[in-house]
Amino acid sequence: MQIPVRRPSRVDSTRVARCAAFALAFGAMLPVQASAQDVIRFGASLSLTGGTSAEGKRVKDGYDFYAKLANERGGINVGGKKYKVEIKYYDDESNAQRATALVERLIVEDKVNFVAGPYGSGSTFPASSVAEKYKIPMSSPMARPRPSTIAATNISSPSSTASINTPST
Predict the structure, then answer these.
(1) What pLDDT is stored for residue 56 in this prediction?
(2) pTM value?
(3) Crossing angle of helices 96-108/121-134, nearest 10°?
(4) With contact defined as beta carbons under 8 Å apart, do 34 and 113 qualify?
(5) Which CATH number fits domain 12-165: 3.90.1800.10, 3.40.50.1360, 3.40.50.720, 3.40.50.2300?
(6) pLDDT tens across 60-112, in order?
(7) Four-point Cα dihedral 101, 11, 49, 1, nearest 10
(8) pLDDT computed for residue 143 by the predictor
(9) β-strand 149-153 against 76-78: which pairing, if any?
(10) Measured between alpha carbons, how far is 151 from 154 in angstroms, rounded to an integer?
(11) φ and ψ at residue 10, rounded to 5 degrees
């Protein structure tokens, strides 16, 4: 008996690549706040169980791919210095309230330098308010923007914001 193998669709592969690209772009723009161990710590609250676990696991695969690639290349170059990448994960169980609490835990307890957002808009929007509260950069490549005016934090100056008009769908 032959077992069918599910191959990732083009959409899946594109999402994983986009996720890794966002992490790379934002990681390279981080202010130098890494610890003495020369590590930039990313944190992610992902849906590893629950209703969106299949998608959350793909996002984790993308983040892991990025970290492995960056570390194989000597780390992220920030201001002429190389920093290794570490990623701390928590399972938000596909629950927006849990995702929000875990993002706060990543920032306050785990002292991450950067938050890689949860999967999906339902978890990302409330979790992003926590990252904004602590002025920690957060990338959310897997969330859809609200069909209205949203505030975007300038990553090089977290205290300044700009309005972005997004089209209604």
Answers:
(1) 93
(2) 0.66
(3) 30
(4) yes
(5) 3.40.50.2300
(6) 999 999 999 999 999 999 999 999 999 999 999 999 999 999 999 999 999 99
(7) -170
(8) 67
(9) unpaired
(10) 10
(11) -60, -35
Q: How far is CA 119 from the centre of its chain?
A: 9
Tokens, residue 106: 């990543």
3-state secondary structure the chain: CCCCCCCCCHHHHHHHHHHHHHHHHHHHCCCCCCCCCCEEEEEEEECCCCCCHHHHHHHHHHHHHHHHHHHHCCCEEECCEEEEEEEEEEECCCCHHHHHHHHHHHHHCCCCCEEECCCCHHHHHHHHHHHHHHCCCEECCCCCCCCCEEEEECCCCCCCEEEEECCCC
The mean pLDDT value of the chain amounts to 76
